[in-house]
Amino acid sequence: MGALSTMIKRLLFILCLAAAGVPAYAQDLVINGPAPNFRARTFDGRMVSMADYKGQVLIINFWATWCGPCKKELPFLEGYYRAAQDKNYGLKILAVTKEDSIPIDRLKPLAAQVHFDMARNFQGPYSVLNGLPTNYVIDRNGILRYAFDLDSLNAVLTPLLQQPMPADAAPGPTKASFAPN
Question: Which of 63, 36, 37 is nearest to 117 (CA)?
Answer without folding.
Answer: 63
